[in-house]
Specification:
531 residues; 6-stranded mixed beta sheet; 17 helices; 18 strands
Length: 531
Amino acid sequence: MTSVKTLNPKAEVMGRGAALFMNINAAKGLHDVMKTNLGPKGTIKMLVGGAGDIKLTKDGNVLLREMQIQNPTAVMIARTAVAQDDITGDGTTSTVLFIGELMKQAERYLGEGLHPRVIVEGFETAKKATLQFLETFKDKIETTDREVLLCVARTSLRTKLYQDLADQLTDIVVDAVLTIRKEDEPLDLYMVEIMHMKHKMDKDTRLIKGLVLDHGARHPDMPKHMENCHILTCNISLEYEKSEVNSGFFYSSAEQREKLVAAERQVTDDRVQKVIDLKRKVCQNGETFVVINQKGIDPLSLDLLAKEGILGLRRAKKRNMERLSLACGGFAINSAEELSPDCLGYAGKVYEHVLGEDKYTFVEDVRNPTSCTVLIKGPADHTLAQIKDAIRDGLRAVKNTLDDGAMVLGAGAFEVAAAHNLMENTRKTVEGRAKLGIEAFAQALLGIPKILAENSGYDAQETIIKLQEEYERGSKVGLDISTGEPLDPQMAGIFDNYLVKKQVIQSAPVIASQLLLVDEVMRAGVGMRGK
C-alpha cells in the first residue's frame, strides 16, 4: 500500500480486507435487487427515467441496461450478465444471482480465515465437474417436435409476462421460428419482423404469415384493399433526378427548353410505362398489382400508377425488401430492363390500416412464407416494450433449442441434481481444503431453487430438503411453484435452454473468482494526475 503512495501521493488505496468487503457487498447488493425477479412468480420492477418516462419489467437484461449502477464491482457483474444475454438471449438474472450466491458462500469461509486462492481452486474443480454433469443431464430432442419447442418457449415467456399472455405468445413465437426455418441453413431471426401498434389490448397480438409495412400509399386514389395481388419488389428510381455530373445546357429558345424538360421527364415516364405494361400482361380475371419500391416515386408517377389501379409504396426499408422476397416469392429487381413475370411475388390480400395519423400496409395470405411478422398490440408504450422484450427472448430460446438439439429440465431440477453430484461424487475425488470451495459451489447452486421457493411464498429450507430427499430416491425433481412440493419437470413441460445453463456455469464462477482474488483497489489512474 505504501509503495503505491510513494509513486503517487494522490492515489486512493483500499487494503485487502476492505477490497474483499467491497466486492462481496457489491455482489450481494446486486443479488438482493435481482432475486425478487426470478421465476414466473417473480415481482416487477418499475424504472423511472430522468424525464419521468416509466418502464415496467421483470427482464434482468432490461434492468441491468437501464439501471444506473455506479459501484465498479457491480458494473463488472452487470456487464457479464448483459454479455450472457447477447450470446444466448436469456439467463441474465440467473448469472447475477449465481455470482451473488458464490460470493455469499465464500464470505462464510473467508470469515473463518480461509485464503481466497483455496476457494477459487475449489470453484474451478466444481465448475469443470458441473459442466461434465450437464452433458449427461441434458436430454436430446427431435428438432421437429413442436410440443417440446412450445414447452421451452412457454418456460421462457412465463418468467417475463403474466401467465395468460405468455401462453398466447408461446404459439406465436414457435410458429414464427418454424416459418422462417429452412433445412440445412442457419436461422436468421431478423427475418421475423416485430411491429407494434398502440391499439386495442395486449391479447390482440398476433402472427402474420406475411409482412406489415409501417407506411401506406402516397396517393389518395390508390386502392386500399386488394386481393390476388402480384407483388413487384424493386429498387428503381421512379422520380425526376438531377444528374450526378455537373453539366450545362444552353438553349436559344423556349421551345428548346421545353424539349429538354420533356426529355428529362420521358426517362422516368418510360420506366413507369414498363411497369404498367407488365401489369397489363400478367393481370387477368380480377388480379391486382402492387409495386413496393426501395427508392422514391414522384407525384406524377404515382398518378400514372393510380390511374391503372396499381398500389405503389415508396421508400421501403432494405430489410423489408429481403423479407418481401422470402414471404411472397419472386426477387427484387434493380433496373427496369429486368422486368418480367418471373420476378413477381404473390399475396392473397394486401390492405391498408389507418391508425390515427399512421398508416400500415398488410401483405397477407402468401403461398410459401419464409419470413413473417409478429404484430404486437397494446394500450400503452410500457406494455408494448415489455411484450417486445419478452418476444425477443422467446425467439432466442426456440432458436437455441433448435441449434443445440437438446434441452435441460427446468424448475430448479438441474441445480438440485448438480449440487448432489458435487457433494456425493466430486468432493470425494479432491483432497485438502479445496473441498470447502466445492461445498461453497454446491450451496450456491442450491440458491436458485431457494429463491424460486421464496418468490412463490414458501419456506426455502424446507423446500430444498424435500427436493433433495426426493432426488436421493432416484427422481429428477424440480419445484412446483403452485404447491411448494417436488414435481417432475418432464411431465409439467418445464424445460430450460442447454446453452443458457452452460453459459451461466462457465461465466459466473470466473467473475466470482476474479473478485475474490482482488487484494487491493487502487484509484491511481492516469486521469487522476491533475486532481
